[in-house]
């Protein structure tokens, strides 16, 4: 599993994806690649996790509205979020980020 610190790091990178894309550095590029890989991973595989990534993190929608838009309950949301962050953590670690 992830440490709490890693979870925060991964969450922050996701939340700041737009900013990371605009400011060129090797680390930012690696984060962007890892996030893009996560998007691609869920695209055809898992509409809930793909939706969560898109709506909550890329569009910065509130948690409540995200639940609404995805038609899911909080338990499903929390499980999906953990999976999403874990997947991104794996792709980030492969790039030496964590």
What class would the helix/strand composition place it in?
A: mainly alpha
- Please work out how many helical segments DSSP would assign: 6
Which runs of at least 5 residues are low in confidence (pLDDT < 50)? none
Gyration radius, in Å: 13 Å
Helix and strand string, N-terminal first? HHHHHH
Main β-sheet description: none
Oligomer: single chain
Give the overall form.
Answer: globular
Q: Calculate the terminal CA-CA distance, rounded to whole Å.
A: 13 Å
Which range best describes the helical content: under 10%, 10-25%, 25-40%, 40-55%, 55-70% or over 70%?
Answer: over 70%
Walkthrough of the structure:
There is one protein chain. The protein is mostly helical and 98 residues long. The chain is built from 6 helices and no strands. The mean pLDDT is 96.
